[in-house]
Design goal:
2 copies of one chain form a homodimer.
Chain A (H helix, E strand, L loop, with lengths): L3 H4 L11 H9 L2 E5 L4 E3 L7 E14 L7 E6 L7 H4 L8 E14 H10 L3 H25 L2 H16 L3 E3 L2 H8 L3 H13 L3 E4 L2 E4 L2 H7 L3 H13 L16
Antiparallel strand pairs in A: 1-5, 2-5, 3-4, 3-5, 6-8, 7-8
Helix pairs in contact in A: 5-10, 6-8, 6-9, 7-8
Chain A binds a DNA duplex through helix 8.
Amino acid sequence: MPIIQAAFGSNRLLNLLTDSQRKNFVGSCELINLHLGDVLAVPGDTVAYVYFPVEGIISWEKQIIGSPFLVVTLIGNEGMLCINSLLGVDVSPCRAIVQKSGFALRIPASTFMHQLKQIADFDVILKRYAYVSYNQVLQLAACNLFHLLENRLARLLLMFQDRAQSDELHVTQEQLAEMLGVRRVGVTKAAGSLQRQNLISYSRGNVIIHDLNGLKASSCICYLADKKNYEHIMHAQTSHNTNTPVQLPI
Amino acid sequence: MPIIQAAFGSNRLLNLLTDSQRKNFVGSCELINLHLGDVLAVPGDTVAYVYFPVEGIISWEKQIIGSPFLVVTLIGNEGMLCINSLLGVDVSPCRAIVQKSGFALRIPASTFMHQLKQIADFDVILKRYAYVSYNQVLQLAACNLFHLLENRLARLLLMFQDRAQSDELHVTQEQLAEMLGVRRVGVTKAAGSLQRQNLISYSRGNVIIHDLNGLKASSCICYLADKKNYEHIMHAQTSHNTNTPVQLPI
DNA sequence: TCAGTTGTGTTATCTAGCGAACAGACACCA
DNA sequence: TGGTGTCTGTTCGCTAGATAACACAACTGA
């Protein structure tokens, strides 16, 4: 297991803290391995730990009664688990599963709540992240209604690529179908189309992205919208007066 | 315009404050009329006021580029506008439009931010509301993907009924179609089906709900899920120690 | 090396909702 | 009273994706 220092400064949310704040916070964390398939949160269950991924990918999945789980977003080192702790509720609304191995800084939820109050501006930063996350779900809700599967698939692959920092992804069509809440046949068709356009190639759970820009063009605008929103909100001038709300460049 | 006292205690979120806290908060508010069609928030614009509806209905609508607005939720006296202020971001992610006249307590966003810090537990209560709202959007995202129009329509009508506190609603099929992000023909068919089951009747923008329980049975579970979630989270034992997260009865 | 498993491709049928167009009923107003 | 606009109902063809079933290639492990 890599030492804590290796992870120091490797989560983009924690990077928004000052060096000394971050040092202080990371001191309360332990660095743990994320293994493919690990379940980090179960809907309706009390969350014991809050995670700040350093490497790897975690899916955040909502289930409604009578339907399969639907991937709401993928969380990598740009984000955190679980947003509910941030909002003072210790029950997770979603399931969280490791989709790509890696490691994360982990802190007991109660310690996290305490630190949130102790570290100046930390709660301002993370509330902004909650806003970004809220906006992402809004985007998804409309995306699910208006956008075609092929575009949604391209979007999901791009989200993987971003967080894996690699053009080679390991995920089967069956898994993608589950994530998107559709049948596998649909993914095969959509993936086949992307393949014929020479944007990706596919073989037994190994996706290679050949043309990133082409894939972006095939994706619905939701990919870009989410990304822009993250950058705008998270990198808006940090006011060190927590009374002042964030002003956004439109 | 009704006097402030008439509204005192008429918003369910403010009801969670103690009498003196509420009196104090309402002192910073003004009671304003909500007129049908009033636009209270524009996506991307800075929010000037935070609203606590006392009577009437406001729709909260997300637009993604290239698609029409989609109603994310209806807000009545059980909620507030705009959740972004709560999260320290002063830009609205959604459009807010008055769908049924009424009135609301309105407070300048900056004063609101200040009060949020001054009034003990107020921010705990409202962060919980943000959690409920987040969960609602999660539910919608899955609902849009998995549920049939007829069920989604029933759900929307029930949401109206709840907030209007009346079985007579004033909304055309065209408007419902826009809210649901579908064509008007689809709503005509779905509404026709509900009518044939004697659950509702329809005539030129006037809907009458005849069989509330039948309509609930025709609705997707999302209606109930949202409602239960609101009650569970908002009425969980208020801990007066803001360090302790909310424990949920599963 | 061969059997069993897993992942991908393909086909055929079915359905919800889209898209466009039109008809009739009602309401308001000159 | 008649004209015009609004709201609801209906039709027809079309498409995306569901559903089900099967073929086959590639990997795995005895």
